């Protein structure tokens, strides 16, 4: 009789060990899957940020060259500029004049394929009015947080 009890106990311990290994395996799979999803989201956010920053730099160069457009803006006036699409990412650009500064805002957005959520990134910067021999110009002053 004692032999049968021992065999049952060994089988029970084996099943417990197997169950423990199964729980550890499922936890590992969940962790890996979660990490891959987070890495993908981070990659999408960085791509959106780079596209928005690139568009902001393009706008700042364009605004520095187009002095007449800058002078034509009225104080407090906000305008939406063209919205080009780049690699499936839609961008929207806005300009607003406030005193001696012109503020630029660029928003890059993309719809997530699986979840359907809209991911977006905004970057802002400004130009400051400088008086030169040729007249007033606006020069790039930097990004805003």
Q: pLDDT below 50 for ≥5 consecutive residues: which ranges? A: none
What do the pLDDT scores average to? 88
Shape: rod-shaped
- The helix/strand order is HHEEEEEE
Structural class of the secondary elements? alpha+beta
Euclidean distance between termini CA atoms: 77 Å
Instruction: Give the helix proportion (percent range).
Output: 40-55%
Radius of gyration: 29 Å
Structural features:
145 residues; alpha+beta; six-stranded antiparallel sheet; 48% helix; 35% strand; rod-shaped
Can you characterise this structure?
Strands 1, 2, 3, 4, 5 and 6 form a 6-stranded antiparallel beta sheet that branches. A hairpin with a 2-residue loop joins strand 2 (85-86) and strand 3 (89-98). It is rod-shaped and about 100 Å long. The model has no long low-confidence stretch (mean pLDDT 88). It is of the alpha+beta class and 145 residues long. It contains 2 helices and 6 strands; from the N terminus they run H-H-E-E-E-E-E-E.
């Amino acid at each position: 009789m004692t032999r049968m009890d021992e065999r049952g106990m060994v089988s029970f311990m084996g099943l417990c060990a197997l169950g423990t290994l199964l729980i550890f395996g499922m936890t590992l799979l969940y962790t890996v899957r979660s990490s891959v999803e987070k890495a993908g989201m981070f990659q999408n956010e960085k791509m959106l940020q780079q596209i928005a920053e690139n568009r902001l730099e393009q706008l700042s160069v364009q605004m520095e060259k187009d002095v007449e457009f800058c002078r034509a803006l009225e104080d407090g006036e906000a305008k939406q500029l063209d919205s080009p699409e780049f690699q499936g990412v839609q961008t929207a650009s806005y300009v607003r004049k406030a005193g001696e500064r012109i503020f630029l805002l660029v928003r890059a957005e993309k719809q997530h394929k699986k979840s359907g959520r809209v991911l977006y990134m905004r970057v802002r910067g400004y130009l400051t009015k400088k008086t030169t021999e040729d007249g007033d110009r606006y020069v790039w002053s930097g990004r805003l947080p």
